[in-house]
Amino acid sequence: MSLLLNVPAAEETEAKSKGALWDANLQTWYLPDINYDHIMEVDKWITDRDTAIILSDEVIIAHAHQTCPHCQHNTSVIAIGSDFFYEKDMNERDELVWFELDFFTLFQQTSVISAHLFNFFRDNYPHYKQGPARSADGFYWCNHCEHCGKDIDDATLFADPGSIFNPDDAAAATAITLRAFPFKYAPHIDADYNMNNNVRLINEFAGRT
Is the pTM of this model over 0.85? Predict the structure, then answer.
């Protein structure tokens, strides 16, 4: 679960002292997973500074189908998931730290994604892209209907019990397929997530490939 770093030339010695390594092939610095105890020390060099979640380097994409609320056609929809991840948040001393969270979840209301994840969606899931602004935070990534091209709000897919990514029983969870995609470097995002029983149902009963 190596993490890409954007280290200025003048700070390379400092980065190396904090556990960063040099990738000669990609000509970039990175933090290997064995040095993640130094993650806060290299925080200032993490690319895409607006992100607060570091995914596993094996990203989970949840696949399902949903009736488009605009044209009523059946369209494929996806969601970003991870079997574990890191989240940047305040600790009990009001200090910003990276917490390791060891559980599966799906993410929603994704406002920022790292560059290599952007390229992944562009090449593999072109119907998952930025949609209209839904709050003061700006644009969100969301599914778009394969037929009419209109955006499908995450609330349609996640909000209510029984919605496609919020199944209320094991049978509904089997309608979801989880597919793992390995990344050389862990992508990062800014998004919301849940820890409810519905997520547990997906982890337990959705098919995995």
Answer: yes
